[in-house]
Amino acid sequence: MTLRGVKWRKLFRAVHRDLGYVAVALVLAYGLSGLAVNHIEDWNPNYSYDERAVAIGPLAGSLAEQEAQVIAKLGIPRAAVRGHFQESANDLRVFLVEGQEVRVDPQTGRGTHKGLAKRAVLFEVNALHLNNLKGIWTYVADVFAVALIVLALTGIVMMKGDRGLAGRGKWFVGAGLLVPVGFIIYMYS
Amino acid sequence: MTLRTLLLLGALAVPALTACDKGPSKSEAATTTAAATGLTLGGGVKLKESVAIAALLADPMKLNGKTIRVEGMITDVCPKRGCWMQLAGSQPGQKLKFKVTDGEMVFPMESKGKWAVAEGVVAAREMTVEETKAAAEYEAKEYGIKYDPASITQPKVAVRIDGTGAVIRDKQ
């Protein structure tokens, strides 16, 4: 395909190839995050929890004194404590650093010690994918979105003949189009 | 235009676009930490005076629709998207929900126990007993909270703050 002496198909192949190299890291990151957040109803894609039962015996005194007893009995350093909150007469919550929490019934001393940890890699790629960073990242993501459009368009026109869009390509493009179109029809039916 | 020229133009375009950023600066961005004031989210906090959570909850219809500032210890954070947080009032069990549109601000899960100063519009609505039960059942199912339908016998006024900005810091 030449127009005014420019070999367009060759140019599209080169753009598709080199833009693909540039975009590969973000395509993988967004794809991984897409899988993770797509199932947000079934799991937390950013954090994992660790919960263990505790039995520290009945607590007495003011809330501050009860908080002090909780951390003393569990061997938690004072510096790790952020504060406490009385949810109800039988539910005392002691908040610790890094999102940890001890929750006990002061009458019985039974409860849980809940830990929280960021999911390595997933937390970071989700922050990029969901644009939690805002600011300049919004524009980087815009450039990436344009790059994906360019990759798609150059991808469908870079081959000619039987393997091109006019050949079997049109059937693959059609099949790929049918899936979302089918779901949109289903959505409005 | 040669391929080399195209690639050169492309390479120049990325830093040029980012340099033209008219969005919030790093210190103003949604999840940026500012050491002196804490983590600033959304539009931050502009009002000077806070309304006590206990006072708001005592008569929420009085402030309905008004933009106010509140502050308190964070007791809970939306475990799925970080789109809401609960702030403790001065009384046992007293909490106020601070809600934002998903993705507009993201409250970190590890914020529990920290102190939040938050600003937004009061959204209060008188519910029927059935609506109160339905709301409690939804929250229980969505966030794995214990729920006993028999415990709800009176209608409740649903009150929350539709947030515009917040600052989260380690201590009060």
How is this structure best described in words?
The complex is a heterodimer of chains A (about 190) and B (about 170). By secondary structure, chain A is α+β, with helices and mostly antiparallel strands. In chain A, about 50% of the residues lie in helices and about 20% in strands. In chain A, β5 and β6 form a beta hairpin. The longest helix of chain A has about 30 residues, at about 10-40. Chain A is elongated, with a radius of gyration of 28 Å. The mean pLDDT of chain A is about 95. Chain B is globular. Chain B has a single domain (about 25-170), classed as Nucleic acid-binding proteins (OB fold (Dihydrolipoamide Acetyltransferase, E2P), Beta Barrel), CATH 2.40.50.140. A 5-stranded mixed barrel of chain B has the order 3-4-5-7-6. With about 170 residues, chain B is an alpha+beta fold. The interface between A and B is large, with 37 and 38 residues.
